[in-house]
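Morning!

This is the sequence you dropped in the shared folder:
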Amino acid sequence: QVQLIESGGGLVQAGGSLRLSCTASGYNFGGYPMGWFRQAPGKEREFVAQITWSGAMTTYADSVKNRFTISRDNPKNTVYLQMNALKPDDTAVYYCNRASARSTGGYFGVLPWGQGTQVTVSS
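The structure's back. Tokens below.
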């Protein structure tokens, strides 16, 4: 049974930092790219960051470039998202998933979504 468990969210002031973690189980974690996605109230879920299976290459949404860093630890089946210089617009529920590229650009999540972790940035 595939499981994705996100953690590390919380309430932080603008300009602050958080580190999210996601632990996966039930599939060959180390064999696939992983991604972080987020969904703000009243909006569709959107792509945030992606990392290849080896960790050698990463891709970011323009809105988080140079502020967020995605990384992974394959022996621990865990992917991380270091978020710095947080803004109120970053407020959302954050999800991890196995990431696959869309033919039209961007990425989507392949597996059933987990519960996510809430990030709230106050101004």
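Headline: The radius of gyration is 13 Å.

More detail when I'm at my desk.
O.
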